[in-house]
Amino acid sequence: MLNLKGKQLYLRALEPRDLDFLYQLENDTSIWEISGTLKPYSKKVLRLYLDNAHRDIYEVKQLRLCISDLEDTCIGLIDLFDFDPKNRRAGIGVVISRTKDRNKGYGAEALSLMCNYAFTTLDLHQLYANILEDNEASIHLFEKQGFEKIGCKREWIRTSKGFKNELMFQKINSDVS
């Protein structure tokens, strides 16, 4: 757990007590565009998800952790997804739920902790992130953490206002071969 604790926050496993937070976040239509969500989630479905959240990353190919401040308030989520142990890579995504908690360094610290965990504990060679081209805050966050833009998927995400380009960022762990 030590490598999942920073100065302002720590990353922890999802708990049953996080149901209301998860329900609110997953049903926030303002982030559906970036999460790929198409319909609301019920508390029943999310409770089942929480009941299975303990499953191993090698089995389910993903890991979702709660971003908690030092008072143990869940302020966001960070995910590893498309975990590929053979090629030693995974996708990574982060969301800070409330606008008032953004731009305080929480996303940067959570991303740094998760990258460190992925590279040291999971022995990954690379992480990648997909970010909509108009999400300047996320682009800045990932570039600040050493991710490099490696490409653009044109007209990749369909929104209510038309198609948007999605940028792909990558961070290579140069400490491993």
Automatic annotation (TrEMBL):
Gene3D superfamilies according to UniProt: 3.40.630.30
Domain N-acetyltransferase: 9-173
Single GO molecular function: acyltransferase activity, transferring groups other than amino-acyl groups
A UniProt-annotated Pfam family: Acetyltransf_3
Family matches, as InterPro entries: Acyl_CoA_acyltransferase, GNAT_dom
Keyword Transcription regulation: no
Protein name according to UniProt: GNAT family N-acetyltransferase
Upper taxonomic lineage: Bacteria, Pseudomonadati, Bacteroidota, Flavobacteriia, Flavobacteriales
